[in-house]
Amino acid sequence: AGRVSSGTAHVGQEVVVLPEGVHTHIAGIDFAGVELTEAVTGASLSLRLADDVDVARGELISSVADAPAPVTELDAMVCWLADRPLLPGARVLVKHGTRTVQARVAEIVAKLDLDRMAPEEADQLALNDIGRVRVRLASPVLAEDYTVTRHGGSFLMIDPQTQGTLAAGMIRAGTSTADAGL
Questions:
Q1: Quick check: 19 and 99 in contact, CB under 8 A?
Q2: How many CA atoms lie within 13 A of 52 on its CB side?
Q3: The predicted structure's pLDDT at residue 180
Q4: Residue 177's pLDDT is what?
Q5: Strands 60-63 and 44-49, sheet pairing
Q6: Angle 38-28-26 (CA atoms, 0-180°, nearest 5)?
Q7: Most exposed: 84, 96, 153, 172, by fewest CB within 10 Å?
Q8: CB distance 29 to 52 below 8 Å
Q9: Looking at residue 182, what is its pLDDT?
Q10: φ, ψ dihedrals at 91, nearest 5°
Q11: Which pTM was predicted?
């Protein structure tokens, strides 16, 4: 049971359960006691799978063609929300969907100069700064580009000591970290 975060699902469709990578088919779709043939974005429902697959909270059922690859590094835009500045090397928690993983800020690539609406070099992000960062994760997440799906492309950075929110982020997939632009 869960929510369709993007795309559609239909009975008979081949799907993969991630991160395990188990392939199966959708045998049925149930919504409030009614059997459906198709599920659309935003619907909360139950999928009946053709095979006995153990699917835990936070795992993803995806079409085989659109399955995101697990990643251990994020290239992302973040809005820094904390009073103390973000510095390279900072240890944080990354909350992506229902998963929370330990992480380290590998690099602050640039920050957005709001007066010129252009990127500029930065060695830290201060309160309310918007910047591009590279974050290394201790465990893989199923990250997607924010422009494709807000659910799979967004995350929070959390302080590991206080559990307070440090930043809201949007994942940039298919981009080169060598590109210093935003």
A1: no
A2: 0
A3: 47
A4: 40
A5: unpaired
A6: 85
A7: 84
A8: no
A9: 60
A10: -95, 130
A11: 0.80
Is the distance from CB of 39 to CB of 28 less than 8 angstroms? no
Kindly provide the residue ranges of all beta strands, DSSP E only, lying in the chain, ordered along the sequence: 2-3, 8-10, 14-18, 22-31, 34-36, 38-40, 44-49, 60-63, 71-80, 91-96, 99-113, 118-120, 130-141, 154-158, 165-171
Check: CB of residue 63 under 8 Å from CB of residue 7: yes
Residues of the chain scoring pLDDT < 70: 174-182
Cα(133)–Cα(112) distance, integer angstroms = 12
* CA 104 – CA 62 distance, rounded (Å): 28
Structure tokens at 101: 């993983």
pLDDT of residue 175: 44
Bridge-based pairing state of the strands 99-113 and 130-141: antiparallel
Q: What is the pLDDT of residue 148?
A: 86
| Interatomic CA distance for residues 179 and 133, integer angstroms | 12
> Degrees (nearest 5) of the Cα angle 16, 21, 27?
30
Residue 78: name the closest of 146, 151, 139, 160 by CA.
146
Closest CA to 48 of 66, 30, 32, 31: 30
